[in-house]
Amino acid sequence: MIEMHDVWKVYPNGIEALRGIDVKVDQGEFVYIVGPSGAGKSSFIKLMYREEKPTHGVVLINGVNVKRVRDWKIPYVRRRIGVVFQDYKLLPHLSAYENVAFAMEAVETPKREMRPRVQEVLELVGLGDRMKALPSQLSGGEQQRVSIARAIVNNPTFIIADEPTGNLDPENSWDIMYLLEEINARGTTVVMATHNKEIVNTMRQRVIAIEQGVIVRDELEGEYGYED
After folding, report:
1. Out of 82, 101, 106, 143, which could bridge 159 as a Cys pair, Cβ 3.0 to 4.6 Å?
2. Residue 177 within any structural domain of the chain
3. pLDDT for res 127
4. pTM strictly above 0.70
């Protein structure tokens, strides 16, 4: 599913965000990425959906070396990747339905296939009655549900979630986590960067800890391991 071999990420200013990363995430896993601020978590996540390229080493996503993918082919590689962001990244002038449909339009899905699939995923995330609402008419939790619906609408093999509960209150945070857990139970791999100690320690899954660009801990049913 996801493999990194001797991966380094060095930015133009000389900062080494990642150093010699070797890791593999298998199909169906649920993995937390943890570590202090500035540890390299965001760079690690961005490499997975080809927002960044490795400076050195190989990143394989579903067997594809993402460093070699031409820019115009990136949307097709990302078709099998769902991404959920902390700040939702919804298009403000589009309805919930249109935001989700946009992800299918990006990979040229026939329109006859869009409507039933978009309706299906919005029902799955509990927003079947909010399809026409604009982001400004939705709560933070509802906006994140739209973001998750958009992430899964193309039937991705895995979801990358970058601090998906970071802007939510505890109740909405747990609702989002239960939703991601349900999606994972259906066979979709989930990789989630988070600072939420309570969630990691309660929903015991694999934990990969990054510090100063290096993986320092990789544990099944791991704990957060850092003070708030």
Report:
1. 82
2. yes
3. 95
4. yes
